[in-house]
From TrEMBL:
<dbReference type="InterPro" id="IPR001677">
    <property type="entry name" value="TbpB_B_D"/>
</dbReference>
<dbReference type="GO" id="GO:0009986">
    <property type="term" value="C:cell surface"/>
</dbReference>
<protein>
    <recommendedName>
        <fullName>Transferrin-binding protein B</fullName>
    </recommendedName>
</protein>
<keyword id="KW-0843">Virulence</keyword>
<feature type="region of interest" description="Disordered">
    <location>
        <begin position="314"/>
        <end position="340"/>
    </location>
</feature>
<feature type="domain" description="Transferrin-binding protein B N-lobe handle">
    <location>
        <begin position="44"/>
        <end position="196"/>
    </location>
</feature>
<dbReference type="InterPro" id="IPR035313">
    <property type="entry name" value="TbpB_N-lobe"/>
</dbReference>
<dbReference type="GO" id="GO:0009279">
    <property type="term" value="C:cell outer membrane"/>
</dbReference>
<keyword id="KW-0564">Palmitate</keyword>
<feature type="domain" description="Transferrin-binding protein B C-lobe/N-lobe beta-barrel">
    <location>
        <begin position="199"/>
        <end position="370"/>
    </location>
</feature>
<feature type="region of interest" description="Disordered">
    <location>
        <begin position="229"/>
        <end position="249"/>
    </location>
</feature>
<keyword id="KW-0449">Lipoprotein</keyword>
<dbReference type="InterPro" id="IPR038669">
    <property type="entry name" value="TbpB_N-lobe_sf"/>
</dbReference>
<dbReference type="InterPro" id="IPR011250">
    <property type="entry name" value="OMP/PagP_B-barrel"/>
</dbReference>
<dbReference type="Pfam" id="PF01298">
    <property type="entry name" value="TbpB_B_D"/>
</dbReference>
<feature type="region of interest" description="Disordered">
    <location>
        <begin position="32"/>
        <end position="60"/>
    </location>
</feature>
<dbReference type="Pfam" id="PF17484">
    <property type="entry name" value="TbpB_A"/>
</dbReference>
């Protein structure tokens, strides 16, 4: 196959050979080896404000999780709002298998008292078995899709959500009612195994996948654009991807509409390994109910931009569907985020995971992505193989020069 990325790497070989030997080094065009030991010194970034604290918070690891919030809605308690915070992020630890739930967080939810005797833990599609309407069923039938076509079958990193129907809680003090809470309790998360030890030193690779969210909690708040607030999601407990009603997202249609990349909430990212930059967008593939021109097939909520350093990246997410003057949006994706971070997983950067919290503390986002199952992975591996061959050629040439 005549591939321009591989051809480009081959064309510049003589220049790199000369510069590598003259400089006395091993060349800079091979696979970039990256340090995956944790903790690492916090890198400095100049393009994002308050980056020091964020870098210290995100020094590597296997993944992160954010727990759903529940508000004390009893009027006398006067707890009208519960926001999300950076300190709410929890590390997940090394997963036994990325497709399974993070053990530490699963153990927390397994101990939560269930409502009406339903002790099941419900999970997002493609994770462990679940009976949720938007999750797995016992035999895998009627499984709503949350994927990008041809970008499936993750091996190293997964993202998703899980929860339990938590018991309705009445808080009493000296026989007096002091509070009340109800709603689901759970987490959104991403986690992976085998943090990448090598990444391509050049070339551009497209990664696609899925993303998930959890919101803050505020009195009378709802997000009708993305969630049917039948259980007071966003008001009494966090609205999250597991509550996404199929009337809003395309999850089961057999034919994708123009512009749609898949089903549900999906990501489209591009990594420029030459300049160590990550860019991309987060969209929802909308459920189209009629053929009128007013129907949109997709809605973009964020654009992403990050700097790649080692096997990690840090940057920002810009909200792209903000309200105009005097307008109110019925979704939580209205504020930018300066806390985008993530990492590459797999021996040579085969997959990635990411997270961020909006600057208004209203919504947390996690996601995962990978190159296309066939062509993109073949391009990536051929480019890496070409770079390795070039590296070996440099060493042979340098040895000959030393002998002569």
């Amino acid at each position: 196959m005549n591939n321009p990325l591989v051809n480009q790497a081959a064309m510049v070989l003589p220049v790199f050979l000369l510069s590598a030997c003259l400089g006395g080094g091993g060349g800079s065009f091979d696979l970039d080896s990256v340090d995956t030991e944790a903790p690492r010194p916090a890198p400095k970034y100049q393009d994002v404000s308050s980056e020091k604290s964020k870098a210290q918070k995100d020094q590597g690891g296997y993944g992160f999780a954010m727990r759903l919030k529940r508000r004390n809605w009893y009027p006398q308690a006067k707890e009208d709002e519960v926001k999300l915070n950076e300190s709410d992020w929890e590390t997940t630890g090394l997963p036994t298998e990325p497709k399974k739930l993070p053990l530490k967080q699963e153990s927390v939810i397994s101990k939560v008292e269930a409502n009406n005797g339903d002790n099941n833990i419900y999970t997002s599609p493609y994770l462990t078995q679940s009976n949720h309407q938007n999750g797995n069923t016992g035999n895998g039938t009627n499984l709503p899709k949350n994927e990008v076509t041809d970008y499936k079958d993750f091996k190293y990193v997964y993202s998703g959500w899980f929860y339990k129907h938590a018991k309705n809680e009445i808080i009493r003090e000296n026989s007096s009612i002091k509070g009340a809470k109800n709603g689901d309790d759970g987490y959104i998360f991403y986690h992976g195994k085998e943090p990448s030890r090598q990444l391509p030193a050049s070339g551009t690779v497209t990664y696609k996948g899925v993303w998930h969210f959890a919101t803050d909690v505020k009195k009378s708040q709802n997000f009708r654009d993305i969630i049917q607030p039948s259980k007071k999601q966003g008001d009494r407990y966090s609205g999250f991807s597991g509550d996404d009603d199929e009337q809003y997202s395309n999850k089961n249609e057999s034919m994708l509409k123009d512009g749609q990349e898949g089903y549900g909430f999906t990501s489209n990212l591009e990594v420029d390994f030459d300049n160590k930059k990550l860019t991309g967008k987060l969209i929802r593939n909308d459920k189209v109910t009629n053929a009128t021109t007013s129907d949109k097939h997709t809605t973009q909520y964020y654009s992403l931009e990050a700097q790649v350093t080692g096997n990690r990246f840090n940057g920002k997410a810009t909200a792209t569907d903000k309200p105009g003057n005097g307008e109110t949006k019925q979704h939580p994706f209205v504020s930018d985020s300066s806390s985008l971070s993530g990492g590459f997983f797999g021996p040579k950067g085969e997959e990635l995971g990411f997270r961020f919290l909006s600057d208004d503390k209203k919504v947390a986002v996690v996601g995962s992505a990978k190159p296309k199952t066939t062509l993109q992975m073949a391009i990536l591996r051929r480019l890496q193989a070409a770079q390795v061959r070039q590296h070996r050629a440099v060493r042979r040439l340098c040895r000959l020069k030393t002998v002569s």
